[in-house]
Design brief:
The protein has helices spanning 3-9, 13-27, 72-84, 91-98, 104-122, 143-147, 197-207, 242-245, 247-263, 269-284, 291-302; strands at 39-42, 47-50, 56-58, 129-140, 157-170, 182-192, 213-217, 231-235. By secondary structure, the chain is of the alpha/beta class. The protein folds into two domains: 3-122 and 291-298, no CATH class; 129-267, Nucleotidyltransferase, domain 5 (2-Layer Sandwich). Helix 2 (13-27) crosses helix 11, helix 3 packs across helix 11 (291-302) and helix 5 (104-122) packs across helix 10 (269-284). The chain is globular and about 65 Å long. It binds zinc ion (ZN).
């Protein structure tokens, strides 16, 4: 969807609300008081009313937009920007583009969208052949350190550890366009506090399907993979062979770093996962084209807000 299509589909607040409602009706509304799924729509209030108990539910309530006082159209515009470009956007840039006077609600909206994307990806496990390695992403550790001028490599910046998993399917016969013997599938990136064998085993267990094959170097962090129902193929990998032996995991790491560095300076470690969620979500749906907007919208509608 290009900008002109977007504007003609969503010229005003009501057109956004109607689309949101259309998706909510598909997903189904459930009453927060009695759990009933039967509702009638009260048009002049823009609310659902539970047929059983009379409890009213607003359009936003119980979805990713729950509690946000920003107009639907702001959410739609931001979802359009996120899904129609390869870029990421800082909250400050979005705030400027929307001409909104407060930073915080815009920041919250972006982080909520990234949470929605992360939750969506969590629903699937990676399968087949997977390359796995760690990436070290630059983050800023504390407010105190942020205040100091950055000294290169002197500890004012911190490296956050990220476990990166990439489906990397062998291509039989010919090589792919980029000359690789393997084709890339889905990717996943998870921020970890440490690289202990037990920690990484748990993450692999949660994120990778049984019977998959995992290719790694021979680091001690991976020694517990043997306890899992997967095939682990650790190899001694000389530094100059990394790009050949684990091609896609390193491309994924450097692409993610470049994108994050370009847009989000001074990333605090607690928000790194949020940016990675967005990167992976979009990467995993890189062939969706115009459908990506609707997919993200439906993910927002189906998102269960527990507040
Ligand atoms: Zn009810």
């Amino acid at each position: 969807m290009n900008l002109l299509n977007f504007i003609s589909q969503f010229p005003d607040e009501d057109s956004c609300k109607l689309r949101f409602k259309e998706f909510r009706d598909q997903v189904g509304v459930s009453c927060s008081k009695c759990d009933s799924k039967e509702h009638r729509w009260i048009q002049n209030k823009w609310q659902y009313e539970c047929v059983k108990c009379g409890n009213r539910t607003t359009l936003k309530s119980g979805t990713a937009l729950h509690g946000s006082r920003l107009p639907f159209r702001y959410w739609f515009i931001v979802m359009h920007l996120i899904t129609s470009t390869k870029k990421s956007f800082s909250a400050l840039e979005i705030q400027r583009q929307l001409g909104h006077n407060r930073y915080e609600p815009v920041w919250l909206m972006l982080h909520k969208l990234r949470e929605v994307m992360g939750k969506r990806d969590e629903e699937y496990q990676l399968t087949d052949v997977i390359e796995l390695d760690e990436g070290f992403f630059s983050t800023i550790s504390t407010d105190e350190e942020k205040a100091k001028p950055l000294k290169r490599g002197r500890g004012s910046q911190k490296k956050s550890k990220v476990l990166v998993m990439v489906e990397s399917i062998p291509v039989e016969g010919e090589k792919t366009k980029k000359g690789k013997q393997r084709k890339v599938g889905h990717i996943r990136m998870i921020v970890v506090n440490d690289l202990k064998a037990e920690t990484l085993k748990k993450i692999v267990e949660e994120n990778i399907a049984l019977k998959s094959i995992i290719d790694t170097d021979n680091s001690n962090s991976y020694t517990k993979f043997k306890d899992l129902d997967i095939e682990h193929r650790p190899k001694i990998i000389p530094k100059d062979k990394v790009n050949e032996m684990l091609p896609w995991v390193h491309i994924a790491i450097s692409n993610a770093k470049r994108l994050l560095l370009d847009i989000h300076h001074d990333i605090e470690p607690q928000y790194l996962q949020s940016y990675l969620n967005e990167f992976c979500y979009k990467y995993n749906r890189r062939y969706f084209g115009d459908k990506l907007f609707d997919r993200l919208l439906i993910a927002c509608v189906s998102y269960k807000n527990n507040n």
